[in-house]
Design goal:
With about 325 residues, the protein is an alpha/beta fold. It contains eleven helices and twelve strands. Helix 6 links the parallel strand 6 and strand 7. The protein is globular and about 55 Å long. The mean pLDDT is about 95.
């Protein structure tokens, strides 16, 4: 069996699983495969592929052009970039892995604190010989608005409460009793955006939720408010957000996710003041990679033995 491990940007995959124990050749890809032609060319002749989250889309056309592919393992149990119907049509088994929820919640607070206390700017100033250029804002006593109160959103909400924040929650199908049990106040969408000092997004991307936060929602926010997105880029209208931050309509934004990833080097978003940008690091931690790659190797072994695990197709 020939096995491809994709998008190993940090050249870290090898140390997080016992790949040598697999019955086959394992090839690690360290650069993005941009476009269907590149994916089809690079993966021709591979029997199994390990995909890291949504970094490489597996569309119907990709499956059509990889007739030898038998197994696709995606990290996590949900991957919007994999066409499961096409995989089934082509006889490709798709398996997943568990996904620890804590890492993204922790990074969310890294972005919130970086924005509130101007940590990147002050760190850069220190390296240039400076001292105390900004005045930070307090979180204690402020209001946190959590858009999406699932397993990640509820963790972020609990940390907000620990900071002494009032925590509001909204989603289109929010259960008010569950929201109260999670220590939050269930409110309507406009109330959340109008009252929150920090809005943080933890929502599942779908055709219905794309553009969930656009110019209208941003216009409801306080001019001192911050927006953080560690969920999926297309949930927020990037052009509207860029305009809101550049014009001072809101005070700033912390982003870990983008419409196109990796974010192109010349993307205008990289030059927007008042932002803290990270390269989709939410799940990029040692503990998460141990689960992702360790279980990916288990999936391959189980598939080879005729007893696939965590099957999504």
């Amino acid at each position: 069996m020939r096995i491809a491990v994709l998008d190993d940007y940090q050249r870290a995959a090898r140390r997080f699983a016992d790949w040598d124990a697999l019955d086959g050749e394992v090839v690690f890809f360290h650069e993005p495969l941009a476009g269907t032609d590149a994916v089809a060319s690079a993966l021709a002749g591979f029997d199994a592929v390990v995909a890291m989250r949504e970094r490489t889309p597996f569309t119907a056309e990709v499956f059509d052009r990889l007739p030898g592919l038998r197994l696709l393992v995606t990290t996590g149990m949900v991957n919007a970039s994999v066409d499961l119907a096409a995989a089934r049509h082509h006889g490709v088994t798709v398996c997943g892995t568990d996904s620890p929820p804590h890492a993204t919640a922790e990074l969310t607070w890294g972005l919130i604190l970086s924005l509130a206390r101007h940590i990147p700017a002050e760190s850069a100033g220190m390296r240039e010989g400076g001292w105390q250029h900004t005045v930070g804002r307090d979180l204690h006593g402020r209001t946190l608005g959590v858009v999406g109160l699932g397993r990640l959103g509820s963790r972020v909400a609990a940390i907000g409460a620990a900071f002494g924040m009032r925590v509001l929650a909204w989603s289109s199908n929010l259960d008010p009793e569950r929201a109260v049990a999670a220590g939050t106040e269930p409110v309507d969408r406009r109330t959340l955006f109008e009252q929150a000092d920090v809005v943080t997004v933890h929502y599942k991307l779908s055709a219905r939720s794309a553009g969930l936060i656009g110019a209208e929602e941003l216009s409801w926010m306080k001019p001192t408010a911050l927006l953080v997105n560690t969920s999926r880029g297309p949930l927020v209208d990037t052009a509207a957000l860029t305009e809101a931050v550049r014009s001072g309509r809101i005070a700033g934004a912390g982003l870990d996710v983008y419409d196109l990833e990796p974010l192109p080097a010349d993307d205008p978003l990289r030059t927007v003041p008042g932002t803290v940008l990270t390269p989709h690091l939410g799940y990029v931690t040692e503990a998460t990679y141990e689960v992702f790659y360790g279980q990916a190797a288990e999936d391959i072994t189980a598939f080879a033995a005729g007893t696939p695990l965590r099957v999504l197709t």
